[in-house]
Amino acid sequence: MGSLLLVSLLLLLSPSHPRGGSARRRRGARTQSPGGSSHPSFWVRLSPDFKAVPLGGSVWLNCSSSCPLPEGSSLRTELRRGETLSGPRWVSYQLLDVRAWSSDVHCSVTCAGETRGATARITTYKQPSSVILEPPVLVGSDYTLRCHVTHVFPVGFFVVTLRRGGRVIYSESLERFTGLDLANVTLTYLLPSRPGDSGQPVTCHARLNLDGLVVLSSSAPVTLPVPAWSPASKALASTSIAAFVGIFLVVGALCLRKYLSMQSPA
After folding, report:
1. Phi, psi of 167, deg, nearest 5
2. pLDDT class of 5 with cuts at 50, 70, 90
3. What is the pTM of this model?
4. How many Cβ atoms are within 10 Å of 206's Cβ, its own excluded?
């Protein structure tokens, strides 16, 4: 059966975040110096090189190198910085209140006059505030199922799924929605009714997948209602009952007549 998907955008999360892009990892553990020289015994790593952070959350990045006596280390980012910790050949940086969809963070280390660096990518996401499945409505021979997923980001990485009794009845990816705004999603689906459907539990699920990070939110179960009898069905049932009662009375009268005839004296 057909489905209808409605996405309404809310207030922009961060006016400074880049448009477009994806959650794909960018690995930049080892790079050459800006001058293009090579130092095979000197490498720089920034880990983790990819991290998905809940909207407004924080993250620690560790910049390390193989340089025995680093002359200096620096971090370049548009994100808000917090604490800094350091040790032999490593420096850890804290990034606070992450709200930009996709940010590249660059770490540089200078060793024996040569500067090399590494890059990490930080993305953010917003788990649904709620997943609500309206009580199903039976119209004709179809159940109307309507699921609301509120305050999600980024929409294009979500999949909305409907289940009946634990089995998937419909699933739709939102990947065609490439906007980077907080949004509400409403999925409407027409489910053909079948014998035995009444009383079955139905649930709605919103699944976010960011390069292996999976976040699942689910609605409370609702039950499919018992089909209401149409006027034609009621008339047919009434006719059938009347016919049955009539047949019962005729059979009863015949049996009574036969019984009385058997009881009369010869």
Report:
1. -105, 140
2. low
3. 0.68
4. 25
